[in-house]
Amino acid sequence: MLAYRVEENGSLSFVSSAVGSPDGPRAGLCWIARYGNYLYGTNAPLSSVSSWVIDPSDGSASLLEVEAATEGLKVPYDVLASDSILYVVNRVGGTITQFEIADDGSLNYLIETGVGATGGIALVNFE
Fold it and tell me: What pTM was computed for the model?
C-alpha cells in the first residue's frame, strides 16, 4: 500500500509505503477505507481485514493488525467506513459484514446480513 498527500494545488506527494508482515496483506489487498486516523483493507485470499494507523504529523501509515477482523468474512472485496461502522462486502454468500470501529481502531463484529448479489457498496442518507 502506498500513501500520498494531496497538495493544495491537487498534486500528489509520496508519503510512505506501508507493507504488511510476511503473512499479511500483499497481493490480495483489494479495497481500502479510511476512518479517522485508521485505514482498513480487505484481503480476499485470507478472508480478513487488515488495519493501519496513520501518523497525523506526516501522513505515513503503519500496519496495526494483519488480521483485524475475520469473523463473518467470506472472500471480502469491498469496504466502506461510516459513523463508526465498517461495512465489508463478501464475494461469497452475497452478504455484508458490519464491524464497530473502536476508538483504538480495533474492530468488533456486529452482524452479517444477506443482501443477495453484491457488486460493491455505497451508503446513501435520505435525511
Answer: 0.80
